[in-house]
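User: Design a sequence. Structure:
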């Protein structure tokens, strides 16, 4: 994983991304919860946390009906990210951070991901939407 993900840099929870992907694939929090062996409340809470940071991700009524532009952008990135994490491609990156931490005398200022929190994710979303340079456009 030579290029880092703006979603991961902003500190998004990987489990929340897995829950989000399962829910949109299966069309409901209940079905996602059954597949992931968690409660529907856990799925709903994880997606609510993502939406609190990013804005609306899904269009819903009684079921999930679709994705917002931000939801589509997150889903596209999350699929690759979750696949990479599941296959172990991130291990090399973690090892680099561990080596950097040791080289710095064990201090914790070396971190694998950005620490700018909500501001960073908002910037990533705006970048995805094409608004960082004043242009308008929705993510595909």
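Assistant: Done.
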């Amino acid at each position: 994983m030579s290029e880092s993900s703006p979603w991961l840099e902003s500190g998004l929870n990987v489990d929340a991304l897995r829950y989000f992907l399962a829910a949109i694939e299966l069309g409901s929090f209940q079905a996602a919860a059954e597949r992931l062996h968690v409660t529907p409340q856990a799925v709903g809470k994880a997606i609510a946390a993502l939406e609190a940071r990013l804005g609306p991700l899904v269009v819903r009524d009684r079921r999930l009906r679709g994705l917002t532009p931000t939801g589509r952008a997150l889903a596209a990135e999350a699929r690759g990210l979750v696949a990479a994490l599941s296959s172990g491609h991130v291990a090399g990156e973690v090892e680099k951070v561990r080596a950097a931490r040791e080289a710095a005398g064990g201090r914790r200022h070396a971190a694998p991901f950005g620490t700018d929190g909500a501001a960073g994710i908002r910037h990533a979303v705006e970048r995805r939407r094409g608004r960082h340079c004043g242009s308008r456009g929705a993510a595909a």
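DSSP finds seven helices and two strands in the chain. The two ends are 23 Å apart (CA to CA).
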